[in-house]
Amino acid sequence: MSSPSTGGEMPAETLEPLIGHGEQLGVLRRLAAGGTLPHAFLITGPDGVGKTTFALLAAADLSCLEPGPEGAACGQCRSCQLSRAGTHPDIMRITPPKEETTIGQMREMRATAGLVPVLSPRRVIIIERAETLNDQAANAILKVLEDAPPALVLMLLAPSRETVLPTIRSRALQIPLRPVPDGEILRCLERMSVAPRDAQVIAAAAGGCPGRAISLARREDLRQVLSDAGDWLRCCAGASLAEALRLAAGLRELGDRARKAWGDGEDATDRQGLAWVLDALAGILQAGLAQENVTGGREAMARWGPCGVARFIAETNEARRLVLSYAQADLQLERMLLRVLSLPAEE
């Protein structure tokens, strides 16, 4: 895991293979090779889709001393070695310590942005969870972009364009990373020696996000949360409207367990843990919609049918969006469940 503080060092584990998104990486490489690289990129997509991996690989490409004709890193030069080791002096990664990126982090970013690259042709600064930037932090970025040094490239990562302040997103080229096909995720899980039946359930819950699938495959505690999320859905499919509050409390408990599973809670907030569970529910429901025999998805289809399950997925996604937008989480879960449990049963 990365340190939540601002820093120039990155752990070696961050340069993992990119699953999907090769076309988008190719666009960035061609811009660099053609000399038309903008100063700022906004890389968007759901949690676990590969935004950080994409940004780190792109940073390695942009820092390479001997890139190929299409802009890909050579993998052999001193710069590539440091990128792979996570110790490159010209690549800076910023992660918010808790709910918001701090102004102190942005001040350090501004100071670093003005420095001449030590080794590489460019200095790359990666700002994770750019949706947490407050007005002060955003102003610091704007000041950097208004007078950006020629060698500077900023990469801002966020769930969607709409979650970033308009003053920031209007000055950055967006690169959307969309969910990866299940086939690619299943091939990744096969390489990890995950049993085929387990891989099917994990891929369904991952919702097209390789990072989630890899985490589930590696972490028994997260797989248990996933299993319990399926049981929660099964109970939900058999519940009445009067049980909405009890079910909402159970969902909050699952979110808290998911948060704790990430490094004893040091690398995830309450909202992120709950968002992870809501994502897992949407994935299980999608599997049910695809007629896969998955606990929770199967029972939801039996009660509500395809149209009702599609509404359930939409309500889950909306609750996730609101939770991450700092709306009151308990109210959003209760609202979601009141709407879902009011859906007519399939005849």
Task: Give your account of this protein's structure.
- The N and C termini lie far apart (49 Å).
- This protein has a five-stranded parallel sheet with strand order 2-3-4-1-5, sandwiched between helices.
- It has 14 helices and five strands.
- It has helices at residues 22-33, 51-63, 78-85, 103-113, 135-146, 166-169, 182-191, 196-206, 210-218, 220-237, 244-261, 270-289, 297-324, 329-341; strands at residues 40-44, 91-94, 123-127, 152-158, 173-176.
- It is an alpha/beta fold.
- It is globular, with a radius of gyration of 21 Å.
- Residues 1-14 have low confidence and may be disordered.
- It has two domains: 12-176, Rossmann fold (3-Layer(aba) Sandwich); 219-341, Zinc Finger, Delta Prime, domain 3 (Up-down Bundle).
- 54% of the residues lie in helices and 7% in strands.
- Find the structural class using helix and strand composition: alpha/beta
Instruction: Determine and state the CATH class of the largest domain.
Output: Alpha Beta
Strand content: 5-15%
Could you give the count of β-strands? Answer: 5
* SSE sequence, one letter per element: HEHHEHEHEHEHHHHHHHH
Distance between the termini: 49 Å
Helix content: 40-55%
Query: Main sheet?
Result: 5 strands, parallel
CATH superfamily of the largest domain, by name, is P-loop containing nucleotide triphosphate hydrolases
Number of helices: 14
Mean pLDDT: 87
Taking all Cα atoms into account, the compactness measure Rg is: 21 Å
Please name the CATH architecture of the largest domain.
3-Layer(aba) Sandwich
